[in-house]
Amino acid sequence: MRAGLVAGGAARVFVEALGARRDARRGLALAAPALLWTAAFFLLPSGAIVLWSLFRREGAELVTDPSLDNYRRFLDNDSFRLAMWNSIEVTLLVTVLSVLLAYPLAWAIANRVAPARQRLWLMLAVLPFWTSYVVRSYAWLLVLAPEGVVNRALMALGLAREPLALSFNQGATVTGFVHFFVMLCTLTIYASLVRIDPRLRLAAADLGASGAQTFLRVTLPLSAPGVAAGAFLTFVICIGDYVTPQILGGNTQLLLPQVILLQISRRADIPMAAALSVVVLLLVTAAYLALARWLTTRRA
Amino acid sequence: MSAAAELALEGLTKRYEGAVAVDAVSLTVPRGSYVVLLGPSGSGKTTVLNMLGGFTLPTAGCIRVGGADITTAPPAKRPTATVFQDYALFPHLTVAGNVGFGLSVRGMGRGEIARHVAAALALVGLAGYGPRGIAQASGGQRQRIALARALVTEPAILLLDEPLGALDLSLRRQMQDELRRIQRTEGRTFVHVTHDQEEAMAIADLIVIMNAGRIEDMGPPARLYERPRTRFAARFLGESSLLEGTVAAAGAGRIAVDTPCGRLEVEGERAPGSSVTLALRPEAVRVGAGRPGELALGELAVEEVVFQGGFVRVTGTVAGGGRLLAKVDPQSLPAGVARVPATVRAGGLVLLED
Amino acid sequence: MMAALARHGTAALVMGPLFAFIYLPVAVLVLFSLHAGSVPVPPFEGPSLHWYRAVLDNDRVTGAAWNSLLVGVLSSALATLLATLAAWGLARHRVPGARALEALLYLPLAVSYLVIGVGLLVAFSTAGIGKSLWAVGIGHVVLNLPLAFAVVYGQCDPGQARLEQAARDLGASEAQVFTRVTVPLLRPAILSAFLLSLTFSWDEFIVAFLLSGFDPTLPVVIWGMLRTGLNPATNAAGTLVFLVSLAAGMAFELFLVGRRAR
């Protein structure tokens, strides 16, 4: 009897393990299409980029002996290096400015608008988000061009005698970028601000903290994940964006994506484009590592 | 005996990474009876229910319904249906959609489903509520809908997981009667989990008291209350005073025990010299002049008197050091009395197993 | 009273200039789409629908709009389907290494569209697959899958697992649980994921630019129009694209808000 129970127990442990395995298999089978798609059309192409970055073009010929020539060229070539530093400079500036402008806006919506109307105000704040990406930069051109709205207004008011150089430079690129990313960061920062339990601020005030102290020691640290998420998304999208600098930035100070596209369309030098893409990937990875502490993919 | 049994658990055990949630529970439930698994949280009662419903696989042991082994059958293939603690009603379906769900997934035709649903809703007192949405239903109505949804699938065994826990007290008492009535009408086996001992006593044919994964005691409510088997049962189901003592003499199915309340005689068999515990229900204790057939417990030094309507609850210590709890007629204890003799009704004294 | 005024004052002080900054280019874009003259610069002449007529009569633009819609609907539908299955699989089943699999699904979010586009360009040319709308669609599924997954996965709460358990208890098979309980409960999230994907696909430029070949999508055609410099026709096309995205975006908001309000 006792032996029978023990044997039965062992069999049951087996059945239990089998049940767990069946459950795991079913879950995996459901996730498989998405995982396979990501593997086939994201991981594999990413590997292809790395592989192609080791090839090189000589004249019209593709040399497939792996070498680091493209990377050497990247380090030796001033225009490539300059494009990278331009990209880093613009992207960091855009990220900082976007967060600095978005934070007060998100804060005002989360704290100075009645809860029932916050959603509406948030929607209004990011409504131009839905303009086409290509068209948004063009719209800034309408504003900043020599004969654009701002220059015409300044001249009509007598504040400028001739059009200011507001477009076709890095300042215009940054303006166009910041416009888009302020909206993005407002969304992520607002999301983390409303998640803060209002009682925490009451508790801080009750413990004698002033308004500024409460903000610096309670609100700001607790909203860090929203700031980090916004900053990271800004960095990733900004450093890889071709459209905004191409429309607004003119052609004196190129950014990495413009140089990559040049390799593809003008020179047909796919290996060099791949190597530069790897550089972009490395920069994104660095940004991720810098912000990883505050970034989570956990479900809310 | 087991041939007539509808539900049998044999050595049912559940271990989670070292911790034992349910420890070799064996239990036979006669067909058509209302069983309540009663215990504090963590006692394993909900785990037993989950194993019956097929939501948790046991580590060892066996579950049989009418002799058939269903231990590892998936929930959909079991002759059980569950009324979940939070009801788990489908918010995207109407009341009728919820109640008819089990029939619909079995492929029953619309007309037939409608008939069954109407009958089930009538049974739980919600006739005509079918087209309504779940969001509009009150707590009590949700409870009834969940009950109808489970009953309509005609399960051999209905499992109820703290079904009244979310209701306020008066509604809970009303639903207890309702559940009892429905169980009688339907003649099904109900297995009901709760931590509310009043609910258990009001509703059950058979109470199973669980503690730390084991069955402490089981039986009809009156037997469990009158003659608890263990300390845990004596304390968890109602209140008891416990008297520790030593067996002084034994013979003819009775023993004499030396306790702080003096030498008391009680039914039972123990060797002289062994330590035992006696339990007294507060209703069995009286104060004032003793009556014939009662055992004297000594003089009680009253410490606290709480008026509770039909009775007063008295706590105090007897001369020998034993603490007693009594529920007595308000008339028998005039206000301001500090010392009073206490007695226990014959048969009110129970020898515990542990 | 004073305090309330001060509160609203600071809010207006913060929000006013930022709102002006955010709305300025859109306002100028829309205003000059109604311009009657041939260069969209002040002073404004109009209003006139002349340039809308010109854009809607342009077969290249309308053809590209259909291409965009086709790619958008198909790629979003596929991305949403894959994302929903994956979300259900990972949220409801105990899969070993689930965290790593989640991370893999989220990973494309952390990579610039340009790099994904270049990767697909390189991979497709290696595999001998030519540029086409299909290639764009495949790319858009890659871009939208993580977003759709995040939206649906975020709505797979434990309360829903209880309801699925209840359905199984009542005799539903796994397929019935999915179609009768899971999908109806997740419907707002699924629709949100679809609409979000649709707006992103409708708007996406760089992958389409690299992969579309001779069948351009709308953003690629508008990109071509930009070469002509400032042109009210571009304003009109841009405004139309904006209105379509806005409609989808609003629908997305409404589904998600409707879900939260319940």
Could you please describe the fold and organization of this structure?
The complex is a heterotrimer of chains A (300), B (354) and C (262). By secondary structure, chain A is mainly alpha-helical. Chain A folds into two domains: 2-53; 77-291, Orthogonal Bundle (MetI-like fold), CATH 1.10.3720.10. Chain A is 75% helix and 2% strand. Chain A has a two-stranded antiparallel ribbon. The longest helix of chain A has 52 residues, at 2-53. Chain A is flat. Chain B is of the alpha+beta class and 354 residues long. Helix content of chain B is 24%, strand content 37%. Chain B has helices spanning 45-53, 95-105, 110-123, 139-151, 169-186, 197-203, 221-226, 231-236; strands at 5-16, 19-30, 34-38, 60-65, 68-69, 80-83, 157-161, 189-194, 206-211, 214-219, 241-251, 254-259, 262-267, 275-280, 285-287, 295-307, 312-318, 323-328, 339-344, 349-351. In chain B, strands 6-7-8-3-9-10 form a six-stranded mixed sheet, with helices on both faces. A five-stranded antiparallel sheet of chain B has the order 13-12-11-14-20. Chain C has a domain at 69-220 and 246-261: MetI-like fold (Orthogonal Bundle), CATH 1.10.3720.10. Helices cover 79% and strands 0% of the residues of chain C. Chain C has eleven helices and no strands. The chains are: A mainly alpha (300), B alpha+beta (354), C mainly alpha (262). Chains in contact: A-B, A-C, B-C. At the A-C interface, helix 1, helix 3, helix 4, helix 5 and helix 6 of A face helix 1, helix 3, helix 4, helix 5 and helix 6 of C.
